[in-house]
Design a protein that fits this description.
With 258 residues, the protein is α/β, with parallel strands linked by helices. The protein contains eight helices and twelve strands. It has a six-stranded mixed beta sheet, sandwiched between helices.
Length: 258
């Protein structure tokens, strides 16, 4: 049987600003149906890497391919049907209702007037149902809690119906319960809809429990693998200075040095 090509292929990638590299030597592939977390210390370049994969800023070196086609060979309309993003920037359209914001995800498919077809409406309603937002459709986005708004933004990407979803720190400003809720929700979307989802996070303990694969930005080899394989290789043990915390490989979590 012929081996299936990975959906996302990143090779010898260097990202940063102008000629200053922030992250170097990134190599990984991702298949549909996989949830991948990107972790690392503050300032290591997690968001920069995610934005580069999303084509929001140019790479410095290396290649990013979607099903063997280089990212730079897609036009904007084509790419909008392959990649959707949830970033940390403040929402410019916060006066929209929940349904109106989710409907923006259908823009790559609508005609020049933006008219929604029956199929578009169905995608929107399915996204609202998947994210359990049925009672919030007419609420203004500025009236929502952080957790509710995060679910709305993810629903917009589901309405956009792209194979690849990129999220920059989707659990920021949420309490533990809602952090878990969002990450379990992403896990469910990956399994049920066969999406490839990549997200940056500081919630390493949760990523270890829920991700299929984790990319560790360590400024050196940037290893990627299943959580269990990375634990076995000791990759988490050198991620932070050991004067404050240490990684407990038995529990798969960080412990405070008392």
């Amino acid at each position: 049987m012929e081996k299936q090509t990975a959906y996302l292929q990143v090779s010898a990638l260097e990202v940063g600003y102008k000629t200053e590299g922030v992250v170097r030597n990134v190599d990984f592939t991702l298949n549909k149906g996989e949830l991948c977390g990107i972790v690392g210390v503050n300032g290591i370049g997690k968001s920069t890497l995610l934005r580069t994969i999303g084509n929001l800023q140019p790479r410095l070196k290396g290649s990013i391919k979607i099903q063997n086609k280089d990212l730079q060979d897609f036009n904007a309309a084509e790419l909008a049907k392959e990649i959707s993003l949830v970033l940390t920037e403040p929402l410019a359209s916060s006066n929209l209702t929940v349904k109106e914001l989710i409907a923006l995800g259908r823009q790559p498919y609508t005609n020049w007037m933006g008219n929604l077809t029956q199929q578009d409406e169905s995608k929107i309603q399915n996204s609202i149902a998947d994210l359990e937002l049925g009672g919030l459709g007419n609420r203004k986005c500025h009236e929502l809690s952080d957790g509710q708004l995060q679910r709305v933004l993810i629903a917009r990407t589901m309405a956009q119906d792209t194979p690849l979803i990129l999220l920059d720190e989707p659990t920021t400003h949420l309490d533990l319960y809602h952090k878990v809720q969002i990450l379990k929700l992403l896990k469910g979307l990956v399994q049920e809809h066969q999406k490839a989802i990549v997200f940056t996070t500081h919630e390493i303990d949760l990523a270890i429990q829920l991700c299929d694969r984790i990319l560790i930005l360590d400024g050196k080899q940037n290893p990627i693998g299943t959580p269990s394989s990375l634990i076995e290789q000791g990759c988490f043990e050198t991620l932070f200075p050991t004067d404050m915390v240490h990684f407990d490989s038995q529990s798969g979590s960080y412990r405070v040095n008392k």
